[in-house]
Q: What sequence folds into this?
């Protein structure tokens, strides 16, 4: 949440900063701003709205010239998204400028104390206290680095910050606690970014700051230290992807590009990991011996949003084939209970970004109680990936659209591999292992086939784009697909949609059914098929409109539903990877035809780094 970019070097910084925050706009997009160190001091320009509003203002007011600067794209927490509350924030004299991602929890106490000392505040944000605090310490004679360290000791909460001071031109300090921060290294040029996307255009050499660490950059070099100012040496990582992967590549939206990338994403999730002949999966990053895999007594899956839905599918498959009790928990709930976790518990932490604060905190809580945590993460080098005891990258490539698509199918693919790997140590037969592996290997081709049906899905979207409510129903492995289909629609088209287990319809949602209520049934051929068909008939009897996702060859479905979208058959545990795709496309086309901003839906952010 919130995107931060910083630059020190010898080039005009403004285009670098603006381009950087544009690449981070998916993290937040309600206001934006820049601060540039000019010959006349720090100049701050900010504007509410998307980054194009900031660009318009820069054109109008004139672009500040300088080679050192910071920029921010905001997702509001404290204070409405207007010009004043946009970052960067400064003290009264504009001697310190700062951008922040996170929440300063004790800001009210700090603010009162600073006001009592004569500081005058002009925003409703929590962030502004940091600018004043740093300025206070600098006024006492501390250099910027020390002043930042002192200020951060006073602070409770989470932060990723980038700070400059008018009195120290060319020095840029970044720090993190709970919100990601990456340092980019190039020749005489250094960058800060809240993720690699902001800077990958300029350098692929990066350092990931850990909590409680800061980086001090200047054109002459950089160093890293704790906020207590003890020097730390950090490993320099090579980013293994490039700019083309975070561009639209001819598609109108990132979301559509990412939906269409799913054959490759799923292929990449399996690459080098699947042994079809033996019905095995090799997952080197688990860091667990076969004995440890056999000794697992219980599995807890943690995630938020779409990742939580993937976890639900994981629960069904792990229970069935790895024969372990599984619970799936919203990370945000788990962390504030006193969950029963012990050394026999394996925790699977699912997160596309690897930075979702609730998921990260829940993982840490489980670790404190003695559980082993494995991350199922997309973003390489992210905090969950680094702090987990082991894990499996999903290798979906950068996902920019705020609504998750290819990460979901890749997460389910990795959960299937994990089921296979665990299952084969816990009683799953070689024969069934081979069948799972064969079906996994066939998935990319089948996904391509589903994607080829896009035009038919678009036609259905046109028919339903004016409805205000939709219900999504499924059972078994298709129940989480119903949840995910409904989530996609509401996220990007703002249509109210609910996912429900099909049989539960009779305990409430059936009261909503009339001729104006479309119901999406995920009704592929599995053991619950007949039961779901009965539910379909109950909807039909009440004049509900039915869109069915059905298995190819199920010709009877045409007589039951108003519209049928066919997907190839697979084994039930893998069916979600196919049946979710028409629902992603349906949501996409409905949202586009309603004129919604598909990649940046209102109020949402890709990476939720505040509670
Ligand atoms: C946000 C995103 C969702 C995502 C969820 C969890 O809500 O908009 O698309 O599913 O966070 O994110 P994670 O990165 O942990 O998977």
A:
């Amino acid at each position: 949440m919130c995107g931060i970019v910083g630059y020190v070097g010898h080039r005009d910084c403004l285009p670098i900063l603006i381009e950087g925050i544009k690449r981070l706009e998916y993290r937040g997009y309600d206001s934006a701003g820049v601060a540039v160190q000019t010959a006349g001091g720090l100049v701050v320009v900010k504007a509410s709205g998307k980054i194009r509003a900031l660009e318009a203002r820069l054109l109008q007011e004139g672009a500040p010239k300088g080679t050192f600067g910071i920029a921010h794209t905001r997702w509001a927490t404290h204070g409405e998204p207007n010009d004043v509350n946009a970052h960067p924030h400064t003290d009264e004299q504009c001697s310190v400028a700062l951008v922040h991602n996170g929440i300063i929890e004790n800001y009210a106490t700090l603010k009162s104390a600073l006001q009592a000392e004569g500081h005058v505040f002009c925003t409703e944000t929590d962030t502004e206290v940091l600018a004043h605090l740093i300025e206070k310490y600098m006024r006492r004679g501390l250099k910027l680095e020390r002043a930042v360290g002192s200020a951060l000791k006073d602070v409770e909460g989470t932060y990723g910050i980038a700070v400059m001071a008018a009195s120290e031109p060319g020095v840029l300090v970044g720090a993190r606690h709970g919100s990601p921060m990456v340092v980019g290294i190039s020749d005489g040029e250094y960058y800060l970014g809240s993720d690699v996307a902001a800077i990958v255009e300029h350098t692929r050499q990066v350092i990931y700051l850990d909590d409680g660490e800061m980086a001090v950059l200047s054109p002459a070099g950089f160093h890293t230290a704790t906020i207590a100012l003890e020097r730390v040496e950090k490993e320099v990582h090579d980013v293994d992807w490039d700019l083309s992967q975070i561009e639209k590549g001819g598609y109108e939206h990132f979301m559509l590009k990412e939906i269409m990338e799913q054959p490759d994403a799923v292929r990449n999730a399996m690459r080098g990991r699947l042994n079809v002949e033996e019905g095995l999966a090799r997952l080197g990053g688990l860091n667990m011996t076969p004995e440890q895999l056999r000794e697992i007594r219980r599995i807890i899956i943690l995630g938020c949003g779409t990742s939580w839905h993937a976890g639900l599918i994981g629960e069904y498959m792990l229970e069935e084939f790895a024969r372990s009790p599984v619970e799936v928990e919203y990370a945000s709930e788990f962390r504030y209970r006193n969950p029963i976790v012990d050394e026999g518990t394996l925790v699977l932490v699912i997160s596309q970004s690897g930075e979702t604060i609730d998921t990260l905190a829940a993982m840490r809580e489980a670790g404190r109680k003695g559980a082993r945590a494995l991350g199922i993460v997309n973003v390489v080098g992210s905090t969950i990936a680094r702090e987990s005891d082991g894990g499996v990258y999903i290798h979906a490539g950068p996902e920019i659209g705020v609504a998750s698509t290819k990460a979901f199918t890749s997460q389910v693919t990795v959960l299937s591999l994990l089921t296979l790997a665990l299952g084969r140590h816990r009683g799953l037969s070689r024969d069934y292992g081979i069948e799972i592996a064969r079906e996994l290997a066939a998935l990319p081709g089948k996904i391509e086939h589903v994607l080829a049906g896009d035009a038919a899905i678009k036609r259905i979207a046109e028919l339903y784009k004016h409805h205000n409510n939709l219900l999504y129903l499924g059972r078994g492995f298709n129940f989480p697909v119903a949840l995910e289909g409904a989530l996609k629609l509401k996220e990007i088209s703002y249509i109210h949609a609910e996912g429900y287990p099909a049989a539960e319809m009779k305990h409430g949602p059936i009261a909503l059914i009339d001729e104006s209520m479309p119901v999406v049934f995920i009704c592929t051929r599995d053991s619950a098929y007949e039961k779901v068909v009965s539910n379909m008939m109950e909807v039909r009897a009440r004049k509900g409109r039915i869109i069915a996702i059905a298995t190819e060859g199920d010709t009877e479905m045409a007589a039951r539903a108003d519209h049928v979208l066919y997907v190839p058959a697979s084994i039930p545990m893998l069916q979600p990877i196919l049946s979710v795709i028409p629902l992603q496309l349906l949501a996409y086309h409905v949202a586009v035809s309603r004129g919604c901003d598909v990649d940046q839906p209102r109020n949402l952010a890709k990476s939720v780094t505040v509670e």
